[in-house]
Amino acid sequence: MSGTTYSVAELEARIGAIFRGVGMNGVQAGAMARVLTAGERDHCKSHGVYRIEGTLRTVKAGKVNPQAMPVLAPDDGSALVRVDAQGGFANAAFELALPALAARADKLGMAAMVINDCTHLAALWPEVEAVTAHGLAAMVMCPSYATVAPTGGTEPLLGTNPFAFGWPRADADPYVFDFATSVAARGEVELHRRAGKELPEGWALDAEGRPTTDPEAALAGAMLPFGGHKGSAISTMIELLSGIMIGDLTSPEVLDYLGSTTLAPRHGELILAFSPRAFARGRDGDPFARAEVLFGAILGQGARLPSQRRFRARAEAAAQGITLSAGEVAMLDRFLEQGLAAV
Fold first, then answer.
1. What are the counts of helices (DSSP H) followed by strands (DSSP E) for the chain?
2. Are domains 1-60+307-343 and 69-182+225-305 of this chain identical in fold?
3. What is the maximum alpha-carbon separation in the chain?
4. Are strands 266-274 and 222-223 parallel, antiparallel or unpaired?
5. Does this model's pTM top 0.85?
6. What percent of the chain has pLDDT over 90?
7. Are 4 and 324 in contact (CB under 8 A)?
8. What is the distance in angstroms between the CA of the first residue and the CA of the last residue of the chain?
9. What architecture (CATH level 2) is domain 69-182+225-305?
10. What is the fold of 1-60+307-343?
11. 201 is catalytic
């Protein structure tokens, strides 16, 4: 049986209908539908419709507030934009606070959005790109739950702790990267398990702390940081900045709260925005023009910029739609018909 092709708008509406059907309000359902559709649109299967099941399971377990209305703190004149997610998903809180973040960064040269008490299971690049659309550079980071062993360790302690960066470009897609500080996102391990495929060597340890290529053993054990001690150090930095510094949960505390890695992690998130023109003021050269020289030199060597494949996939989706497999379509149908009973 063949799959089905949806337009971006059609798939977003279908996912949104699933979420509204299980009691999520329009703010929460809309934000989550947009970000998961973006995953499929950009050919990132680990952050697309695959994440719907975890979203529903987290709602069913009562570990996220499906009716949350995020609250933006009043402007206190500082560079901090604070938003309380009220126990809902981070994406809805981010969408609410983005205009304030952009305005504050334009005024002060830089600003930081702090999201507290949120659940986050989606990709970070949609948030980074939303900031670069305002002509600002951006960094985004958050912890997860403890599934990664620090370099030299054997037990889960750190999260996959994603980190993303974006630089705006006037006549081209922004320069964007978004990666887990583990060797691979945990969703990639789960996709290997579902497909019956072994993991590459160097991705994970089993429950006894031994290297493994078995995804089942990896999910019961620990993943590894990318780049050895370098990835481990960056992951620890993310725990400090987007967990401890903002007064929210670290990855071990998230796991204690949830009691399971089958639910979406609840923690905080930190988004930093910078005005290149403000930082470069008084210095020679336009920062955006100088960046283009650097990008051109990279491409001139035959290298590629990160996210180029995603942007090509996005253009294809806009022109040809998003094709889901028959199994994925059946999954959407089941979630729409059965709601929380399906998980």
1. 13, 12
2. no
3. 63
4. unpaired
5. yes
6. 94
7. yes
8. 24
9. 2-Layer Sandwich (3.30)
10. Hypothetical Oxidoreductase Yiak; Chain: A, domain 1 (1.10.1530)
11. no
Q: Is 267 a catalytic residue?
A: no
Angle between helix 90-108 and 125-132 (nearest 10): 30
Residue 160: alpha-carbon gap to chain centroid:
11
Give the C-alpha separation, 139 to 209, whole Å.
Answer: 33
Residue 229: how many CA atoms within 13 Å on its side-chain side? 1
pLDDT along the chain (343 residues), means of 10: 89 98 98 98 94 97 97 97 98 98 98 98 96 98 96 95 97 95 85 91 93 93 94 98 98 94 95 98 97 98 96 97 96 98 97
Which of 43, 46, 53, 292 is catalytic? The answer is 46
Closest CA to 291 of 299, 179, 301, 103: 299
- The pLDDT tens digits for 44-67 are 998 999 999 999 999 999 999 999
Half-sphere exposure of 317 (CA within 13 A, CB side): 24
253 included as an active-site residue: no
Catalytic residue of the set 40, 47, 120, 239: 47
Judge whether 122 and 139 are in contact, CB under 8 Å: no
> Could you tell me the residue ranges of all domains in the chain?
1-60+307-343, 69-182+225-305
Catalytic residue among 40, 95, 127, 188: 188
Order of strands, edge to edge, in the sheet holding 110-119? 71-72, 80-84, 110-119, 266-274, 137-141, 163-167, 175-179
